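Let us practice reading a record.
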Amino acid sequence: MYLQRVLKISSVAAAGLFLSACATGPDTQAASGHYQCGQLSVTVASASDSGLLGVDYQGKRLLLTPQESSSGALYAAPGDDDTRFWSKGERATFTVKGQAYPECLQAGALETRFEATGNEPFWHVGVEGEELVLNRPYDTGGPEKVALETVVANHHGREFRGELGGQELTLKVARQLCEDSMSGAQFPAQVRLGLNGEVFQGCGGDPERLFRGAEWVVEDLAGAGIIDRSRITVEFFEGNRLAGLASCNRYGGQYELTAEGVSFDHMFSTKMACAPALMNQEDRFLELMSKVKRVAIGRNGKLLLTTTEGDEIKAFQATYNRGEQ
């Protein structure tokens, strides 16, 4: 499936950014500003004349020191090489204690390998650097390569222009939520492919960016709400891992995101005992999670997990204050 292939490519591309080549000395000209690492907001800026980099996220601040790198600007926490920020212009990678977040992008930027697809007729594009690989609409032939020129680059997205067989080609990418017209799967970008005067609509980007990088706090279980001052959370991690708090106990497992939806498997939890009401709520939550078939971003940015029976788990992103751990 296309969606599964996008997830695999995104994981490989992100991992590739952490491979080190021959060190040529630190590049201290790190790009400052704001990045989105999936749902995680990160702000970076020089912290002092000493060359330290301040990284603000989730109400916390990291002070990182410059490191040797073959390209870009690499910073790491003193004594903890598994906490690092590696900037390469409008893209970056961010890892905290070995946990890698989705590729970090400045406003409007595209993933290192950006893919998009459309239906009726089917078409598919992959953009990497200044080259596009296209499976044309109405064409059952193989993919074709097109050299691209960037004509618009702003915080809304990107617009490219090229030529294919004497025909003008345009590709417009807007960073807005997009839902596939056939599967209903959601993607982080709306895409328009223009070829020889025709315009084709589609969706693109790594769908995991919609869910990863945030701690989601549950506010409702199948219309019954949750117990006052109780806490249920859901968090998606690299490697298709899932974890959170189920009311009393911590839980974990694996998730699989495909064009058909999402499923959770290999679920486990700790064995602490709490008040009966909390234990009943926890059992209800884990039962619903075992039946989830669809994940989506709803109105006001809420996370919606829908079961095979149509019950919903609703969650919102946790908020953080400065100094909160």
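A brief commentary: Helices lie at 2-16, 276-290.
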